[in-house]
Amino acid sequence: MIKGSQDVTNLKTVDEEQGAVNIICLKRVLGLPSAVGLIVNVVIGSGIFVTPGIVMGYSGSVGLCTVVWILSGFISSLSAMCVAELSTVVPKSGGAYAYFFAAYADLHQFFGPLPSFLYMWVILLINTPCSLALTSMIFASYVYGTFRPLVTEEFNSHYETILKDILGISVLLAVGIMNYFSTKSYSYMQNYFTVSKMFGCLYVILGGLYMVVTGKGKPVQFTFDGSKITLDSLVMAFYYGIYTYNGWSSVAGVTEEIKKPDKNILRSVILSLATLTVLFVMMNYAYLTAMSIPDFILSDAVAVDFGNEVFGRGKIIISVFVAMSLIGSSLSTVFYSSRLWFAAARNGQVAEFLSYIHKKRMTPTPAVIVEVGLALIFFLLGRSIVDLIKLIAYLIWIFNTLTMITVYVLRYRQPLANRPHKVLLVVPALVATVYTVMTVVPLITQPPTRYIVSALLVLLGIVFYYPFVFRQRPAMSKVSDKLSRFIQDILHVEPQTAE
């Protein structure tokens, strides 16, 4: 099923009739603006439009909530600086997966490649497709909810579920097709959605400013009255605050398609996170100009409730911006996750055909198809995937902690590697401590069921790893060869070969 490791990016095919050699590879077409756009698109999904009240609920006051948002952005920035260093030491697509493989794979025959495999297992097989499915569900609800008043109640009762399913499936197929055609066309679409998201955020901020200037708004006082200063509350506030910024590392996952990655990866994460921190803080203040703190905490869709209070009929614009934000997030998530499949296949940890690239379009077509296919499966499973996402969310902090540890491992193992920017050694230690606390405290204070299920999912990954990756059988290789040739023929893709 799974074939051995191939560790090159460039591919060649020989046209025997013309005697020409065509290099097939992932093209470096993403400049600094596109790299920033990728991060913004992945980070701003529905979160800041839907659930910022959770952070307020755990914080208890406007002052502490603001501090949490600022520090969450700051901690994410420190993490990004560490990953930027790793991306120069391991200049390959795959992000944390590639760093784990480079740092640990050759340390032990069985346990060495296991961290990278488990990262792929959790992120690619569960977290990312579940997130894509959930995003498409929210998109369908927003779009249908916008036009629901225009049709009869009888129509809604009969066709609502069907139409929402059609809308959700359509957006998944659309982002898959956009990623299939070319990296350059993806870049154009991504930049378009990035601008739309920024306008959506500014629309909310301007709405808050309007409420203040006209005197219609509620007074927002920067005080710490009511702050919840307990370990559990603080950890959970930062848990959701930092999680809202999650996705900034996506740019490191596509290193081989970034122009001047040694410079632009660091620049893109700093620029995007600084911008996002300012936007998130200002949007929270804007929401509070129209909503009381209790209403803000209880709201399931704070942007919509804010729009109802401020814009009247203009609230539809917020729904449009949220819908476009969701499409952009899905578009960039498929782009990023398909490169992780590509990296895992290149290292022999998943089926080889997932490292194949389309001969003309220069995109990892099989990886895009697989990721969208998994998302469609989870979409059809329905809302139960929300619980699955919650079950594995804390595993992300474990992988983030391991990423910070990897900075030290590669400093020791590859001291002479190219590092145009090196972080102070205290930085990964500080960030790792934060991530560790966010992993351990919920284990103690929250119901244990989700963590038991998470552990079982990881154990299932190890059970799969042993026969299909560690103990690769000749019979499996034969099946993999036949499947790879079949994929080559129908998708017009090529396997990796040495340049």
Descriptive tags:
499 residues; two-stranded antiparallel sheet; two-stranded antiparallel ribbon; 18 helices
Task: Describe this structure in a few short sentences.
This protein is mostly helical. 70% of the residues lie in helices and 3% in strands.
Description of the molecule:
This protein has helices at residues 32-43, 47-50, 53-59, 62-89, 96-104, 114-147, 153-181, 183-214, 231-244, 261-288, 293-298, 302-310, 315-346, 365-381, 384-413, 426-445, 449-470, 474-491; strands at 11-15, 20-24, 357-358, 493-494. The protein is an all-alpha fold and 499 residues long. Strands 1-2 form a two-stranded antiparallel sheet. α3 crosses α4 (62-89), α4 (62-89) crosses α15 (384-413) and α8 runs antiparallel to α13.
